[in-house]
Amino acid sequence: xxxxxxxxxxxxxxxxxxxxxxxxxxxxxxxxxxxxxxxxxxxxxxxxxxxxxxxxxxxxxxxxxxxxxxxxxxxxxxxxxxxxxxxxxxxxxxxxxxxxxxxxxxxxxxxxxxxxxxxxxxxxxxxxxxxxxxxxxxxxxxxxxxxxxxxxxxxxxxxxxxxxxxxxxxxxxxxxxxxxxxxxxxxxxxxxxxxxxxxxxxxxxxxxxxxxxxxxxxxxxxxxxxxxxxxxxxxxxxxxxxxxxxxxxxxxxxxxxxxxxxxxxxxxxxxxxxxxxxxxxxxxxxxxxxxxxxxxxxxxxxxxxxxxxxxxxxxxxxxxxxxxxxxxxxxxxxxxxxxxxxxxxxxxxxxxxxxxxxxxxxxxxxxxxxxxxxxxxxxxxxxxxxxxxxxxxxxxxxxxxxxxxxxxxxxxxxxxxxxxxxxxxxxxxxxxxxxxxxxxxxxxxxxxxxxxxxxxxxxxxxxxxxxxxxxxxxxxxxxxxxxxxxxxxxxxxxxxxxxxxxxxxxxxxxxxxxxxxxxxxxxxxxxxxxxxxxxxxxxxxxxxxxxxxxxxxxxxxxxxxxxxxxxxxxxxxxxxxxxxxxxxxxxxxxxxxxxxxxxxxxxxxxxxxxxxxxxxxxxxxxxxxxxxxxxxxxxxxxxxxxxxxxxxxxxxxxxxxxxxxxxxxxxxxxxxxxxxxxxxxxxxxxxxxxx
Length: 691
Ligand code: PRX
Prior knowledge:
- By secondary structure, the protein is α/β, with parallel strands linked by helices.
- It is about 30% helix and about 20% strand.
- The chain has 20 helices and 30 strands.
- Strand 16 (about 340), helix 11 (about 350-360) and strand 17 form a beta-alpha-beta unit.
């Protein structure tokens, strides 16, 4: 094990069975996974066009290809980013410095001296010429129902909500917790915050009241925006009830705005404001608060390997520019197209590629409120046909789920409008890649496997941009985005040189979209991202670099789980389990799951003298996790054991727990040095009984 990088061995691709087929293909060159040369419109060798794609570089003779552009972006980042910033964003005051600080100092600033407003960039500047263009297509949970919102309509909603927030006492820099279903109201509330200079903190509406309370208190949010109910997959979710329960533990909350998603009447208390009624009398014209480039646009909580979730904090200018530029070039988004990112706005994907990227480009973006299987596994494809979507951007987990339902659900709908098929959040395994490419995309569409994180603000690795027709290899996001300098580091923190290699994935140069800090805990930010390998940004993921310099992600190197593309810390789940009065201690690990990517496996040690049966306890433990975190953190398996395997110095041997959970009994290694070696035999036996 590493002296420098914790858990270093965990990244190895052999630990991730979902990757093995692709990896072995890379080694053996099996024909079913050959590199694909895709060509569109006969433009198979099209070079970069500085006139249409990157007009800001058209005077530069040296930029003729994507390769040239990439090298330029790395060698002259200040020229590269300042030209893009001035041409892609609208500023109320131009910036004086492009970039200050570095990873060693632990502080990065971009575009200082400049001021701008994100809502102006996402709405106002499009109104004159594109006021009647559709900004949002809201695909409601109820199958077959959608409604459209033009830029003008969105602007009016933002104005009214902005004025309501102002009137309620929300000031620039205040945090506003948003706990809403994916809806035009949610988008308008986020943009209203941006307009008046407040910081939005969206909490995924699938998180429990406890999880919401933790995030509200950490951010010291005085304002919460929620809905009476949410509707998902035909089921009603009592959002307002959750907020009522959360707010009893949040003394900082002064007001709760309630949007009526359904007809249901919910009890309203003295903090509550009916948003629909209250916005009726508000003007659609809301004054704009200009923000300094480095002012925080939003924070978003995400899980780490230890402790409570971290409030990842993003800047106004750098984030907005990065989501704008990556949206345009990763997906080759063209004016007039309909972009269908199905992620919830409670995740970073929803922030960058439902809202800020598409709207700052004047695009048309989808708000998908439902699930991939409601009313059946044809939901996405029926929607593609009805809405004529040009792009779809989803998580591999939903592909793995849908492909099991058979091709008929896909084939009965016309998908000829689709041009690009994107995915994000976890490795896109070989079978899912092939199905996406062959069945969904009818071998016409590029598969855009994008790697990035809440912390990176936008896509950092993706097969595009690159020359159309350039190869796309299944199972890997491949190419670094312009401005992103990638590096691999070994267990001692030394760079892995050479064309191919394996190691900890790091980003070696600052980029505008990166998170600036963890809210109220800059030391944790430094410790997590900038100190593990001094001088670079440490992603926490492992990667392979293949021939051609293409990157393949092998998974997290820390104790963070990726369950259906959702990031969860094992420590958070253990904390919830340990709260049960009968639990002495617990250890949670991930194991390979053919749909979710990773499943949750909990080993639980009970205290002596309890009276409940194990069955009853299991029920209570699951209920506890649901109430402390949310249904997304429920373990597949709970194994009760008299103790956990430990080293003689008392450290829990998670490696052994992971191997047992993954059925890799012959890889347990030497267990004789453990303090109680017999416990391993016990958990292996119990595991076999349970599975
Ligand atoms: O482990 C990587 C995985 O998701 C993590 C980031 O999770 P989150 O911050 O929730 O953001 C997800 C959406 C941007 C990464 O550290 N991950 C993300 N994309 C990929 C991926 N793993 C493999 N391949 C990807 N394309």
